[in-house]
Design a protein that fits this description.
With 371 residues, the protein is α/β, with parallel strands linked by helices. It has seven helices and 19 strands. The structure holds flavin-adenine dinucleotide and FE2/S2 (inorganic) cluster. FE2/S2 (inorganic) cluster binds next to loops.
Length: 371
């Protein structure tokens, strides 16, 4: 996908900017040249590069919230990330998008990619479960399911209150297309009287086992899950406890996923991360491949179950820097002191001898990292 200048980034013009809620704004982009447009799958993300105040730039990924049916433009929907305390800056990219980017302006972006995608070949009933801005991948998935399948769908969304809820009318319009499309919103601290929020449309507090049991008939569901880490952790455990098979649960984190999951949960989840691109290699004989951290002397065993070296290190409590997780930004580059890796996503630029991108590679021999 590289262009004549070798870059995967392309100029994209902002066509429109729409406030979806108190915290979420949508941005519709149109690639300026043909090579910027690429058909995509529901659930994939765009990679944006935006300027920072010091004259540098940051790269961030945002899920396409428009339907793949609508060709020519991509919509992303971004939550403004506030600073958690007065002594740290607020989110660089999200605030720049909200405050500085206006229709007509051009940013550099890479067309959609990512392995968290709707399995359109399946006929199973679907649960789309999201928390907060994790609603973004569910929008194109719900659109396709509602318009181009006859599968029963439950669109279940949890958010803080009515003021931060995005896409309420869009979800309602899709749900109205067929009788077996259902929607439910759970407000953690609703602005309305909680007594007025009743099943099946609403609930309040935390999304509970009792609520899911009341909403969902017993069935062999396929689940797509996206939201903040504590929400994901709770829902994943809850779904397993309700008898949903782990191989039926696909999920996406908007950050360093496994750091916030217990080891046991990660282990159970690792094999089921997502359908699609980054499928882990399996079947590595025990002890055959080791990953040595040169600086600490720590030895880890590569079992083949992790989608990338970056995920593998995160699962072991190590936190290498990353940004795009998509072989574009170079943030996850590290020294490779010994051994060989294979790339499942080719790096944007060829790497110097002795360097490796962690987010898009796996070891093919025992390796030593400069970490
Ligand atoms: C696959 C994927 C898809 C995604 N899709 C979406 C999407 O559809 N919509 C969406 O809104 N987001 C999405 N994200 C998240 C998005 O990529 C960004 O991570 C998010 O917008 C925050 O970026 P930022 O530059 O605004 O914040 P950053 O600058 O990265 O900061 C993040 C947070 O850290 C805080 N912070 C900064 N410095 C410090 C410090 N020193 N100490 C403590 N805290 C600090 C900031 O205040 C902010 O709250 C997705 C992420 C991934 C990986
Ligand atoms: S995190 Fe961007 S290239 Fe790896």
């Amino acid at each position: 996908m590289t262009g004549s200048n070798g870059s995967r980034l392309r100029p994209f013009r902002l066509v429109s900017k729409t406030r979806e809620s108190d915290t979420i704004t949508s941005f519709v982009f149109q690639p300026l040249d043909e090579s910027g447009w690429q058909d995509f799958e529901a659930g994939q993300f765009l990679t944006l590069q935006v300027p920072t105040q010091d004259g540098a730039s940051v790269v961030r990924t945002y899920t396409v919230s428009s339907s793949p049916r609508l060709t020519g433009t991509y919509r992303i929907s971004v939550k403004r990330e506030q600073a958690p305390s007065a002594d740290v800056p607020s989110g660089l990219c999200s605030n720049w998008l909200h405050d500085a980017l206006e229709p007509g302006m051009v940013v550099q972006a890479a067309p959609p990619r990512g392995g968290f995608v709707l399995d359109r070949t399946s006929a199973r009933p679907v649960l789309l479960i999201s928390g907060g801005v994790g609603i973004t991948p569910m929008m194109p998935m719900f659109d396709l399911l509602a318009r181009e399948s006859d599968r029963p769908v439950w669109f279940i969304h949890a958010c803080e209150n009515e003021a931060v809820e995005a896409f309420r009318s869009e979800v309602a319009a899709l749900a109205a297309l067929r009788p077996d499309l259902h929607r439910h919103t759970c407000y953690r601290v609703p602005k309305a009287d909680p007594a007025s929020l009743t099943l099946p449309r609403h609930s309040s507090g935390l999304l509970s086992r009792a609520t899911l049991q009341a909403l969902l008939p017993l069935d062999d569901y396929e689940v797509y899950l996206c939201g903040p880490p504590p929400f994901m952790q709770a829902l994943y455990a809850l779904l397993l406890s309700l008898g949903v098979r782990k191989e039926r649960i696909a999920y996406e984190f908007f950050g360093p996923a496994s750091l916030t999951l217990s080891e046991e949960t990660v282990e159970r989840a690792a094999a089921t991360t997502v359908a699609g691109a980054d499928q882990p290699a399996t079947g590595v004989p025990e002890g055959a491949i080791s990953v040595r951290l040169g600086r600490s002397g720590r030895d880890l065993e590569w079992t083949g179950s992790s989608p990338s070296l970056l995920s593998f290190l995160e699962e072991h409590g190590i936190e290498p820097a990353f940004s795009c997780r998509a072989a574009i930004c170079g943030t996850c580059e590290q020294g490779l002191i010994a051994g060989d890796v294979a790339y499942h996503e080719e790096p944007l630029d060829p790497l110097a001898e002795g360097r490796v991108l962690l987010c898009c590679s796996r070891p093919v021999s025992s390796i030593v990292l400069d970490l």
